[in-house]
Amino acid sequence: MSEAVKVHLSLFTVALIYGANYVIAKGVMPEYLGASGFVFIRIATAAVLFNLISLFRRSKERITDKKHYVQMAIAALFGVAANMLLFFNGLAFTSPTNASVLMLNAPVFVLVFSVLVLKDSIRWKQALGIILAGIGALLLIGGTGFDFNTSNAKGDLMVLVNATSFAFYLVYVKRLLKVYSALFVIRHLFVFGLIYALPFAISDLQSAQFSSFPQEIWIDIVYVAVMTTFVAYLLNAWAVQKATPNLVGSYIYLQPVIATAIAVGLGTQVLSLQKVIFALIIFTGVYLVNSNRKKE
How many domains does the chain have? Predict the structure, then answer.
């Protein structure tokens, strides 16, 4: 299997994981667990798993330059702490539909930050692909599901800032992934993220009645902590190491496709020709983003 295929499979897996995350995470918050407390559990679980893997691998990889500590701290701030805290707190104050729509801004921000930070040039196929995929995703979600009113404004703003933060992270972390392995970088980012998130999580963790959580809520928490955090972050970091941030960001547009496919599989939605066409528009956009990638 070629490296390009592995990259796309990794990114598709991440889109699959995130596609189910909106509804699953919303079921936990805020009734059972506050958003910041949930984030701390996510980060803590992933941090333990990343460090356990590193321990068993007995990697001799070390930080080679002190300035990389600062870069990792910055990447952790935007990609782990701010990203998760803003998204989960925002999701607690808005609907899963609104959150999924606002996250569609992330690939556009990735393109902008790639130009500003990495000094990349924007090719017309990339720009067209991102626009095309964005249009397809909006059409697939459906305008009738949006509810951008004053009651959701706080949550909507948090999710929008989160999309910007995550986009910056995808671009910024690229410099570290050129020097170190994906596992090594992510392991350090989650240690920093744990420190950042703790002050925000203390109140939620103290007030949560963990002993009264039903089994299905624990399953949801495990899914988000292991799949949406540990697995998704590791695959994303590996993909950023091998491909461009623009390609990684463009796969966010596939999340509505995955969510729709899951809904069809569960029988809550009906597959129509219109939805198939919208999905094809998204896939075409993602293809255009990747069409000019230079092979090393």
Answer: 1
